[in-house]
């Protein structure tokens, strides 16, 4: 009797506090219809999120921010980049190191690195190596500058083409630049400002989802692709049942984007403990994140 009463109470509380799954899917469907807009960068959708686009509308590592309503930025491997352009048709992201655009003496010295499962260089590029805390030398060095680095007495620095070790200098930072920008080379700061292009991976299931009337997004981990429908969860094929063949919707995913689909919520079950006086409530089919609910 005690167990049955507790089970009924749990189900009643869930019905009052957790919105229907169809409402959850509809909220995500509506939210993912918004685009990211900042300055000259407009109409940006999947797989990016940020601004008016909720987190479930894009990959966890592809969050866009808008600074002063004019400059779009993205954080990659703890380094902030200025977003110069996005070509969603070609999956091209053009970026430049924001810290080095501000000053050749950034507060933190960090190399330019990318997750190869999510990014790949899209065009020919050349690395520049910024050398910091270098001792005086008797020969000319390329592109010299002065920079105070915490914990380093020497202030001299210079830039070399290619990937170089710090050698007799205390620190080095490697930054890629586009080969094409070398034709109009003026100075190092201008070269960095031209940026470089990377290709971002995108889930292969998005085309099928959109053709079926759905909107593309990710689950609560931000890495597993899901298709949001206007009034329910996507079907097993990863589409909204708009007639797209399952093999089209399940095309091979690019490296780094897992092939995941949402499953319907499992039933809430109540199991008695060994003593028979307590109940273990398993909400194994629902994941509560902030104000949204996603199917596991």
Automatic annotation (TrEMBL):
Protein keywords: Glycoprotein, Signal
Wall-associated receptor kinase C-terminal domain ranges (all copies): 164-231
Listed GO MF terms: protein serine/threonine kinase activity
Signal peptide span: 1-23
Enzyme Commission code: 2.7.11.1
Ranges that cross the membrane: none
InterPro entries noted in UniProt: WAK_assoc_C, WAK_GUB
Pfam families xref list: GUB_WAK_bind, WAK_assoc
GO terms under cellular component: membrane
Subcellular location as annotated: Membrane
Protein name: non-specific serine/threonine protein kinase
